[in-house]
């Protein structure tokens, strides 16, 4: 059973992983749909915008990386 000490680090890692994975998946979806990906009736345009927003909302991916490093005891410049 975890003691709870690593919970903030693991939460931050999970947010970083899921937000960046979502961007990769929607990028592939846009590639598959090509120009249709930009059409609102297919919904991919909305998924793409939402995925990109996930890497910015509640702090950027770079801030998440810095926070993870700090939580691991690494010195960040």
Quick structural gist:
With 77 residues, the protein is mainly alpha-helical.
Question: Features of this protein?
Answer:
3 helices; 77 residues; mainly alpha
Oligomer: single chain
Given as residue ranges, the uncertain stretches (5+ residues, pLDDT < 50) are none
Shape from CA axes? elongated
Please, how many helices? 3
**Helix/strand-derived class?**
mainly alpha
Explain this structure to me?
The protein has one domain (7-71). The chain is elongated. It is mostly helical and 77 residues long. It is built from 3 helices and no strands. The model has no long low-confidence stretch (mean pLDDT 82).
What's the topology here?
Blueprint: H1 7-33, H2 44-54, H3 61-71
Helix pairs in contact: 1-2, 1-3
């Amino acid at each position: 059973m975890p003691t709870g000490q690593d919970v903030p680090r693991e939460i931050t890692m999970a947010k970083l992983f899921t937000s960046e994975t979502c961007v990769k998946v929607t990028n592939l979806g846009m590639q598959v749909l090509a120009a249709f990906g930009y059409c609102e009736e297919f919904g991919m345009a909305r998924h793409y915008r939402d995925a990109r927003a996930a890497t910015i909302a509640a702090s950027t991916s770079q801030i998440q990386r810095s926070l993870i490093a700090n939580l691991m005891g690494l010195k960040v410049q």
